[in-house]
Specification:
- The complex is a heterodimer.
- The model of chain A has no long low-confidence stretch (mean pLDDT 96).
- Chain A is globular, with a radius of gyration of 13 Å.
- In chain A, the strands form 2 sheets. In chain A, strands 2, 4, 5, 6, 9, 10 and 11 form a 7-stranded mixed β-sheet that branches. A 4-stranded antiparallel β-sheet of chain A has the order 1-3-8-7, with no helix packed on it.
- Chain A is an all-beta fold.
- Helices cover 0% and strands 52% of the residues of chain A.
- Chain A starts with a strand and ends with a strand.
- Chain B is mainly beta.
- Chain B is 0% helix and 45% strand.
- Chain B is built from no helices and 9 strands.
- In chain B, a hairpin with a 6-residue loop joins strand 3 (34-39) and strand 4.
- Chain B starts with 8 loop residues before the first strand and ends with a strand.
- The model of chain B has no long low-confidence stretch (mean pLDDT 96).
- Classes of the chains: A mainly beta, B mainly beta.
- The A-B interface holds A 35, 44-47, 49-50, 59, 61-62, 95, 97, 102-104, 106-113 and B 2, 32-33, 35, 37, 43-47, 50-51, 56, 88, 90, 92, 96-104.
């Protein structure tokens, strides 16, 4: 079964750094893109960026460029989303999803989500 | 403000047919495939329709997608109580060079 398993919920203070993970199971991790999607409380879905673990080709939404860093370690089939200095406005659920191909592909499956809470 | 426009809510009675619209522009829906995702409360989204009108295995044929010009629609026939979830449309946007989502539609089964 193809599955993405994300790391657990995090509670952080403003200004702290954070790295969350998304591990792929049941498929060749290096041959599919991984997308990160944000869902703020009570709001819709926002695409943050994608990475191709095979060669680390990474693309960001203009809204998130410079705000987060997306990376991957193909040796352990894991993608990451990280912040160097969190803000309260980063409080959200973050999903990773397997993406078959930019422009013509879809997101399937999705990870279970990682809830990030940033509060002083 | 989402790039794709969906009605925030829709409703119907059991057994009824309901449609949810998704409006975009020439840079997204007008020139790329449309996808639909379903999100049950408190869970991750799941793929419902891909490439405008294709259903993944396991998705009932009560769900159907269509696209015309810069708009798309999701139709749900034989409405059931378990359809009371959120639905999101999505499409690649050539101007953004990335996917864009609709704001989501909350379906209520009366």
């Amino acid at each position: 079964e193809v599955q993405l398993v994300q790391s657990g919920a995090e509670v952080k203070k403003p200004g702290e750094s954070l790295k969350i993970s998304c591990k792929g199971f049941g498929y060749s991790f290096t041959t599919y893109w991984i997308a990160w999607v944000r869902q703020m409380p009570g709001k819709g879905l926002e695409w943050m960026g994608i990475i191709y673990p095979g060669d680390s080709d990474t693309r960001y939404s203009p809204s998130f460029q410079g705000q987060v860093t997306i990376s991957a370690d193909e040796s352990i089939s894991t993608a990451y989303l990280q912040w160097s200095s969190l803000k309260a406005s980063d409080t959200a659920m973050y999903y990773c999803a397997r993406h078959s191909a930019p422009r013509v592909g879809w997101f399937d499956p999705w990870g279970q989500g990682t809830l990030v809470t940033v509060s002083s | 403000q989402s790039v794709l426009t969906q009605p925030p809510s829709a409703s119907g009675t059991p057994g009824q047919r309901v449609t949810i619209s998704c409006s975009g522009s020439s840079s997204n829906i007008g020139s790329n495939y449309v996808y639909w995702y379903q999100q049950l409360p408190g869970t991750a989204p799941t793929l419902l329709i891909y490439r405008n009108d294709q259903r993944p295995s396991g998705v009932p044929d009560r769900f159907s997608g269509s696209k015309s010009g810069t708009s798309a629609s999701l139709a749900i026939s034989g409405l059931r109580s378990e359809d009371e979830t959120d639905f999101y449309c999505a499409a690649w946007d050539d101007s953004l060079s990335g996917p864009v989502f609709g704001g989501g539609t909350k379906l209520t089964v009366l």
